User: Fold these one by one.
Assistant:
Number 1:
Amino acid sequence: MQKAEPLRVADRVTAEALVAGVLGNMAALEAVLAEEAAFVREGRLQEGVAAAEPKAALAAAYMQGLEVAKANAVALKRFHPDGVELLRTAHRRFTTAVEANQTVLASAKTVSEGLIKSLAEEIGRAQLPSGYGRQAPAPSPYGRGVRSGPLVLSRNL
């Protein structure tokens, strides 16, 4: 993982180094996002969480590199115009990868929320006694009604 340091681009070598650093961080972050999304798609959430551990550090390094590139945009364009085009192309590809990752994570969140809601409804239905006459909820030992019973979840996947 490369971290961009605040610098001023004053020549072609520095411009090339800045572009290479940003591209390197972007590629590493894209690989982590793809690995995380692949694990989540497969339902292997523990591996997905473990794969995403370096994501925050890589994202911070990438954002710092982008800030340095923005601050030196004129010098980059002057000393390394091909690098600016490389950054634009790579950024478009990276944006697509981020959107795909966000879609996978949003889908997993929606599915898990649906499972929890259906589980809570099933538990609530189980508390209604079945028999003749009016259906009334069983008295709760917690004194707050049918849906107030505790729902215990395990955080271990």
Number 2:
Amino acid sequence: MILLRRLLGDVLRRQRQRQGRTLREVSSSARVSLGYLSEVERGQKEASSELLSAICDALDVRMSELMREVSDELALAELARSASATEPVPAPARRPMLNSVSVTGVSPERVTIKAPAEAVDVVAA
């Protein structure tokens, strides 16, 4: 099962780490407890829209950018999950934000995902 809260947490953590900021700095700026922010990043807690807005403000990231990155990862995870019945999809180690993803070669035997080489880490749970 693909958990949206887990994908969202992964994207939030990457955004924070790209800026070289600590959980403490972001939690203070967003006015949310450090423990709760940590649980959101680990996908253990569902973040409300108000909390997401505060975290995005603290990270100086538009919520639409955050949600676009989550959407891209969700789409890839869904494709990987549907393709995993026939063959595994290798996952690159790094996951910067995608601008677009194209899917070609869709057939019952094989799905080819064309995205930047170091684009995403696809996890189907």
Number 3:
Amino acid sequence: MSDSTTAPASPVVLEAWFDLQCPDCFQALDDVRALREKYGDRLDVQLRHFPLAKHKHAYAAAQAAEEAVEQGKGWPYVEALLARTAELGERGEPVLMEIASGLGLDAEEFDTALIDGRHLLTVDADEAEGKAIKVTGTPTYVIGGERLDGGQSQDGLRERVEEIADRLLNA
């Protein structure tokens, strides 16, 4: 997702590779919020899409998030969507539209974007890049050239990200 949490000139970039139907990614939002709080505009948190095959609606969810970026509400959409991962799994794409409407997004444009596939290339490019750098599960973080895999366990991930960010910011 090209919508980052801070200005593009931030000195340190944290790429957060998420599957938007992944319950572990919902849990990881606490870490993302804490990192944004601690570092403010010194850390540019960028959401990258890595929809997993086991999550039937993750690919559509990634496209929906990109449309939310286009309409100016990328992170609010992602956070609302991740809070409803179980519901997305059960009910599918109507949940994507409900969240868009709830955030005041242009529902007609949102629906059209999901139908015409205008965000397919962005999602595909993220997924291909993720595979190239050996992302295998979500959440996975990349900071300072280091890949931190949270797909197996998120224990200690925030601390490791902070270590690397502190080192990069103090270099």
